[in-house]
From TrEMBL:
It comes from the Eukaryota. The keyword Membrane applies. The chain crosses the membrane at residues 125-147, 224-244, 288-308, 314-336, 361-382. Keywords: Membrane, Transmembrane, Transmembrane helix. This is ShKT domain-containing protein. Residues 671-714, 723-769 form the ShKT domain. It comes from Effrenium voratum.
Length: 771
């Protein structure tokens, strides 16, 4: 309330107090005059009706004392008695009608009541009219903007399609997997604070969790959603706020309706004697305009609050809406001309009659409207929004989060990888460990523990995509990390430390501490830095993964071939530990290669049969089944991707004696070529010259220098010194053993048919000569 109106109200209260005091004292003065007249013997005058008035709000009892004409009443003895004037009291119960003083608010909407009665100049009047229109225009524009689709918060109902698109496109892309090998969707749905991608999706999911009251791993609320509660409270607050404004408009119209109408408006010191019909209609139109704006703001505000998904924004939005509603009062207080302001300040309140029935009807109407708006908002917007939030989160995060995919362009097929769960308890990944360790070491100018730095950006880009096979072919040594030169340790030491960290043995300092891991499919880096310990240079060590593509340096492969030259050209026994270990892990190797259990594929039966057959038959089995059914690699020649040549274990079954110098994978001892340099002695300078003098009868010299000339190769060798042995025939063939085959006379027939059984029974069927 303004200071002018406050002073005026105080003056009115003072005047009313004086009037009530005078009304109370006058009966007392009259009674004193009456008594004084009786004492002086004067005839008292008749008095007016005395009215005792109770407080408003209750049923009053009006005691009316009316003067009664004196009458002669018979006495008990029949004599008339002329008594003094008597009074009889009549008690009436009347329904009380309260009158509520309704003041005119200090706002631009009441300017139409005082224009022409302010004494203001034409510029002030024009300014007041312009500001009234400006205030109306601003509130209309604000309302229109709030109701527009551009201002309305992003609809949660439109997020389902976006969630499906994101989940199917970027969420599981291998390019977005971090150093901890965690997928992007797992990080987004678990509120990872280190995100640099999909921060919008992460923020939306976080809003949903806060609104519905869920933890990141939950998909259904366990209690009443706090966002729903807060939203309903803000909607009720906004309804109450607008209810006060709507009620003020209606009451002001009732007050204006109480002013008598006339041809002209009569306004004296802020009190209306009468108001012209044109001014009254104009005022009603202005106030109804305000009523319409308030209704639109009520709807816009409820819709805005009901669609707000950020629980922290609800109160701020409610306050912002209140500021829009107060634009007219702010414009009036800050910009209106002073003389017009004072004229509005001085407007007297108008008393409006309120009956008890009308008051109760108004209360019931207020409660009904508030209930309908609240329940309607809940059913139309708030509850569907909450349900949609749960659906959107399911689209973003439900199901398997821990996998990534990438396109193999050559295969034109997407490849998958099971990524690590978010916040896994298995420790820090190698990528995270490398970054953390070096970030700490750089502070003290230390050397990188797990990072191999390149000398330039170009070198970095080349090294980043260089295959391990290429590095293994370029590496100039076949040495364990323990025996490396300082230059090699500085250049490639990070590979050994990374291999130890991947094996969960970061404290390892030598290859011997990691030897038991050499045969794992994932130990490529370990085989590169520990070639000797892992048997890359041993021709009779485990054959799986002893190739450059699987980490073994090419120099180790050369050493293995050289070492094979000193081995006898004979097959290992079927019970040999290397042979059995090779076939024991055969299914697991193929499973690691294709990324799933090979036994569950259509080739599973073939793999199982091949494994059992090779374990039972031994080396002759690779002559009967020369190729791997999955990779189509030749067992004897080896596979550049998976295994070293088995010819070092099974040279006889691999026909190394027959292939001669063309078979570079065969041991040198099985070569049928003459030595390129013949040791000249006594004028003999070649094998042809040495044959007549009996070199072929010398076992070592003939094999070492003149194997071809002396015809020491193949099953028809005339002077073979190689071992001749039978293999084992699988029992499921039902043909017994090699002795049974020979006794039945089947050897010659099988040999002519080029049967593998004949090859297995080489000794019994006479396909080779005794040593």
């Amino acid at each position: 309330m303004s200071a002018v109106k406050l002073e005026k109200t105080i003056a009115q209260l003072e005047r009313r107090l004086l009037e009530e005091l005078q009304t109370t004292v006058e009966p007392l003065v009259a009674r004193l005059d009456y008594l004084e007249g009786l004492l002086q013997g004067k005839k008292p005058s008749e008095k007016n009706v005395e009215l005792e008035v109770d407080l408003p709000g209750e049923t009053r009892e009006f005691k009316a004392s009316c003067p009664v004409v004196p009458t002669a009443e018979p006495s008990a003895d029949g004599v008339e008695f002329a008594g003094p004037v008597r009074k009889r009291q009549t008690i009436m119960k009347v329904e009380v009608v309260d009158e509520e003083p309704i003041p005119f608010a200090e706002t631009v909407w009441n300017v139409t009541l005082v224009l022409g009665h302010t004494g203001a100049g034409w510029l002030d009047v024009a300014s007041a009219c312009f500001l009234t229109l400006l205030s109306t225009f601003m509130q209309v524009v604000f309302t229109a903007v709030i109701l527009s689709d551009y201002f309305r918060p992003a609809s949660m109902f439109e997020q389902t399609g976006a969630a499906q698109k994101w989940r199917s496109a970027a969420a599981h892309d291998v390019k977005h997997m971090d150093l901890s090998l965690t997928s992007l969707v797992s990080r987004v749905c678990n509120d990872d604070g280190s995100l640099i991608l999909s921060t919008g999706q992460a923020g939306l999911i976080n809003e949903i969790n806060q609104f519905v009251g869920m933890k990141p791993h939950e998909f259904a609320p366990t209690s009443v959603p706090p966002g729903m509660t807060m939203c309903m409270m803000c909607i009720m607050l906004w309804c109450i706020y607008l209810g006060g404004e709507l009620r003020a408009v209606l009451v002001s119209l009732m007050a204006a309706n109480q002013i008598p109408r006339g041809r002209n408006t009569v306004l004296i010191q802020g009190a209306f004697s009468c108001i012209s019909r044109l001014r009254f209609l104009t005022y009603c139109l202005v106030r109804l305009t305000r009523f319409g704006i308030a209704i639109c703001l009520l709807y816009a505000g409820i819709l805005w609050l009901a669609l707000t998904t950020n629980i922290t924004d609800l109160i701020l939005n409610a306050v912002a809406l209140g500021a829009i509603l107060q634009i007219d009062e702010l414009v009036f207080a800050a910009l209106f001309p002073k003389k017009i302001q004072v004229a509005i300040y001085e407007l007297e309140s108008v008393r409006v009659k309120y009956t008890k029935r009308w008051s109760q009807l108004e209360s019931a109407l207020v409660i009904l409207v508030l209930t309908l708006i609240t329940v309607g908002s809940f059913l139309l917007w708030v509850q569907p929004l909450t349900d949609q939030m749960l659906l959107v989160k399911q689209e973003y995060c439900a199901g398997n989060q821990d996998f990534v995919v990438g396109l193999n362009q050559d295969w034109q097929t997407y490849m998958g990888f099971e990524s690590a769960p978010f916040g896994r308890t298995g420790g820090t990944s190698l990528g995270e460990l490398a970054a953390l360790e070096h970030s700490k070491q750089r502070l003290s100018n230390g050397t990188a523990t797990y990072i191999q730095f390149s000398t330039s950006l170009d070198a970095f880009e080349i090294d980043r995509v260089k295959p391990l096979e290429e590095l293994a072919n370029e590496f100039p040594h076949c040495l364990d990390y323990d025996g490396w030169f300082p230059e090699l340790v500085n250049s490639f030491g990070a590979i050994f430390r990374s291999a130890a960290a991947l094996a969960q043995r970061p404290a390892a300092t030598s290859c011997a501490q990691l030897k038991d891991l050499c045969d794992l499919p994932t130990s490529r880096a370990l085989r590169f830095v520990c070639g000797e310990t892992c048997g890359c240079d041993d021709p009779q060590a485990q054959r799986w993964f002893r190739v450059p593509r699987q980490g073994c340096p090419a120099k180790c492969e050369e050493k293995a071939k050289t070492a094979a030259g000193s081995l006898p050209c004979e097959d290992v026994d079927w019970n040999n530990s290397v042979w059995r270990s090779f076939w024991d892990i055969y299914p697991s190797v193929l499973s690691a290669r294709i990324g799933k259990d090979v036994m569950t594929t259509p080739l599973g039966d073939v793999v199982a049969t091949t494994q059992s057959f090779m374990l039972e038959v031994g080396c002759p089995g690779i002559a009967m089944v020369p190729e791997d059914s999955l990779t189509q690699g030749h067992w004897c020649a080896g596979s550049s991707e998976l295994w070293a040549p088995l010819a070092h274990l099974c040279p006889v079954s691999c026909s190394c004696q027959e292939l001669g110098e063309a078979a570079d994978y065969c041991p040198a001892t099985c070569s049928c070529a003459d030595a390129p340099v013949f040791p000249a002695q006594g004028g003999i300078t070649s094998c042809e010259e040495a044959v007549p003098v009996g070199i072929c009868r010398l076992q070592f010299e003939s094999k070492e220098f003149c194997a071809k000339t002396c015809d020491l190769c193949g099953p028809n060798a005339t002077n073979s010194s190689f071992a001749c042995m039978d293999g084992r025939i699988p029992t499921h063939l039902g043909v017994g053993n090699c002795s049974d085959i020979r006794a039945a006379g089947y050897c010659e027939s099988l040999r002519r048919m080029d049967s593998n059984v004949a090859a297995v029974c080489s000794k019994s069927c006479g396909l080779c000569s005794e040593p």
